[in-house]
Automatic annotation (TrEMBL):
Places the protein is found: Cell inner membrane; Cell membrane
GO biological process, one term: cell division
Transmembrane segments: 21-40
Protein name: Tol-Pal system protein TolR
Domain of life assignment: Bacteria
PANTHER family listed in its UniProt record: EXBD MEMBRANE COMPONENT OF PMF-DRIVEN MACROMOLECULE IMPORT SYSTEM, TOL-PAL SYSTEM PROTEIN TOLR
Molecular function GO terms recorded: transmembrane transporter activity
Homology family: Belongs to the ExbD/TolR family.
GO cellular component assignments: plasma membrane
Quaternary assembly: The Tol-Pal system is composed of five core proteins: the inner membrane proteins TolA, TolQ and TolR, the periplasmic protein TolB and the outer membrane protein Pal. They form a network linking the inner and outer membranes and the peptidoglycan layer.
General function of this protein: Part of the Tol-Pal system, which plays a role in outer membrane invagination during cell division and is important for maintaining outer membrane integrity.
Membrane topology label: Single-pass membrane protein
Amino acid sequence: MAPTGRRIRKRKLKAEINVVPYIDVMLVLLIIFMVTAPLMNLGVEVELPRADAKSITSGDQEPVVVSVDAAGNYFLTLQGAPQEALTLDDLEARVGAFARNNPGVPVYVAGDANARYESVVQAMARLKNADVPRVSLMSSTLEVEQQ
């Protein structure tokens, strides 16, 4: 039989990378990051009271009160001692040492209603750095505010 004139064409090899699997992996990673990003806790741990919470009683121990005034100044009241003005570094050192010597003493942060939120958070962060185990926010009840 004679050749019919049909030629077998050789296919040229394409040197391309299939990117579909990479896109799939990237979409899965994007979903993972979108789900886990809101779960990241970047703040200071605070034990918030329940809605039906009663007034906190400190028992037999006098509480340590860290106050932040409207100007952003920090004050410390240690177990009946007069209130004294401190810097953040001094506050961290004094309350940290006091909490190590008196474990279980309640520490309250009282922020003025006109104080910047940043000032209150800085005080709480410094107390956390000083390894103070439990820090609570202090507020007044609605009955006291209405008078």
